[in-house]
Design a protein that fits this description.
Layout: E1 8-13, H1 20-36, E2 39-44, H2 47-53, E3 62-65, E4 68-72, E5 83-86, E6 89-92, H3 93-98, E7 104-108, H4 115-123, E8 129-133, H5 142-145, E9 149-151, E10 158-162, H6 179-188, H7 190-199, E11 209-213, H8 235-246, E12 251-256, H9 259-268, E13 277-280, E14 283-288, H10 293-302, E15 305-309, H11 312-320, E16 324-327, H12 335-348, H13 353-368, H14 373-381, H15 391-398, H16 403-413
Parallel strand pairs: 1-2, 1-7, 2-4, 7-8, 8-10, 11-12, 11-15, 12-14, 15-16
Antiparallel strand pairs: 3-4, 5-6, 9-10, 13-14
The protein binds 2'-deoxy-thymidine-beta-L-rhamnose.
């Protein structure tokens, strides 16, 4: 009997900024290896970004991590003849061309594969499947674009555009098969949940609203007409903090280090850092370190309400099934607001009607940098509806499979 060879997958990831690009690629890589028996190699140009979400990652040219071969993809290595020294190994475009081309190649977020690698793909007797994994959007046009094939002009290679999304005509969302079972098992033991929170310095008194906060700097509602007398304001964050401080209901807000904490420090004139706790009025702020990606999931599961951003934390909050406020990645000419509205329209349909309006209002205020206090008051008035409010939405999204499984399926059915 011939031995069944695992399929080889190469995922290429260029980190544009922050942690979403690598966040998505790392989850996908792990899931393809763990659930589909794929032999995965992940090429990433920014190893510190990976270390930020997965501290076991080292800054080295090649390493085995969680069953994945992680390779540094040096900046500029797509240019013919470029040579860069990374740790102990010199990688050149020629060197990239020499590595055995995989059976399936994922070009994440149109990151542009190295020219030498594309040439090696074209040289194979059976060219590999080539996916461009796109950014997530809830807009309707995505349905018509998912799965379209284009031809690479220089080589004639076929490239499939793969859109994650929120309908059966898209590639679905990234989600491990056992994720919800893990979440339920974790939440089934209140003592373990309390212990996990306490390990991170989070000890919310009974009756408090537990919120996690991960956002961008939240400072685009600025009044910078005169930056000396009228310094940059952070209206959305400032009004929300004030509402929490002055509210009757105690709020414990957990903030991993990063832009949100910086903004809070600016507003409160403080210097909160990981491990610090500040009680101000009805608000308790708990600053924590940036967590390992799987630990961050737990934080989302524990909270009553999650402020999330970008792409990956946004999706994880949906799987956590608690109400979420999404800070979408800002784009020029406010294009992001179209995407935001497209999501809100879909999501709202699956929420209790009395909650949908206030959640949408707070999301819009948060993203346009306006006063969040009125929408917060409305949301708090509906808090009896919070628990489990995201269940119907998550179940609906689950019915569309997940990115890894849908990619594997697409690949195999069209072989
Ligand atoms: O970091 P993000 O803003 O990422 C991005 C980038 O801006 C990117 O350029 C853009 O294209 C994309 O969004 C849409 O937000 P995101 O996507 O939520 O990624 C953050 C990652 O960090 C995610 O994988 C979760 C992880 N994370 C942790 O591992 N630990 C933590 O404590 C926190 C707060 C997040």
């Amino acid at each position: 009997m011939p031995q069944h060879q695992p399929e080889r997958w190469d995922i290429f990831c260029r980190v544009i900024d922050n942690h979403g690009d690598i966040g998505v690629c790392w989850r996908l890589a792990r899931q393809l290896a763990a659930e589909h028996g794929a032999q995965v190699r992940l090429w990433v140009d920014d190893l510190p970004a990976l270390t930020h979400i997965w501290p076991a990652a080292r800054n080295t040219a090649r390493q085995q991590l969680e069953g994945i071969e992680v390779c540094h993809w040096p900046q500029g290595a797509g240019l013919p003849g470029s040579a860069l020294v990374v740790s102990d190994v010199a990688l050149t475009d020629v060197a990239l061309a020499d590595v055995a081309v995989a059976d399936v190649v994922v070009e994440a977020f149109a990151c542009e594969l190295p020219a030498g690698y594309i040439a090696a793909m074209a040289a194979r007797s059976q060219p590999p499947r080539w996916f461009n994994l796109e950014y997530l959007s809830a807009e309707a046009w995505v349905d018509d674009c998912h799965g379209l094939v284009s031809m690479h002009p220089a080589t004639g290679l076929e490239k499939v555009v793969f859109f994650p999304g929120f309908t059966s005509r898209t590639g679905g969302l990234v989600c491990e098969q056992g994720l919800n079972a893990d979440r339920l098992a974790f939440l089934a033991k209140p003592a373990s949940r309390r212990q996990w929170l306490a390990q991170h310095g989070i000890t919310p008194p009974a009756g408090t609203v537990l919120v996690s906060l991960f956002s961008y700097a939240n400072s685009f509602a600025t009044s910078v007409t005169n930056s000396v007398t009228n310094p940059v304001t952070n209206t959305a964050m400032a009004t929300l903090l004030a509402a929490w401080q002055q509210g009757l209901l105690p709020v414990t807000c957990v903030v991993p280090t990063g832009q949100s904490l910086n903004t809070i420090n600016q507003i409160l004139g403080g210097q909160l850092k990981a491990g610090d706790r500040l009680v101000t009025g009805s608000l308790t702020l708990v600053a924590i370190p940036f967590l390992q990606q799987t630990e961050y999931d737990r934080l989302l599961w524990c909270c009553d309400l999650n402020f999330v951003r970008g792409e990956d934390s946004f999706v994880r909050a949906q799987w956590a099934r608690a109400p979420l406020i999404w800070h979408i990645y800002p784009q020029t000419e406010d294009i992001h607001l179209i995407k935001l509205t497209a999501f809100l329209n879909r999501y709202s349909e699956f929420l209790p009607a009395a909650l949908a309006g206030p959640l949408a209002a707070l999301t819009l205020a948060w993203n346009t940098g306006t006063d969040c206090a009125p929408a917060w008051a409305d949301i708090i008035a509906q808090r009896h509806l919070w628990q489990g409010s995201g269940e119907a939405w998550a179940t609906h999204q689950h019915s569309f499979g997940n990115v890894a499984a849908n990619m594997v399926h697409f690949h195999q059915k069209t072989l």
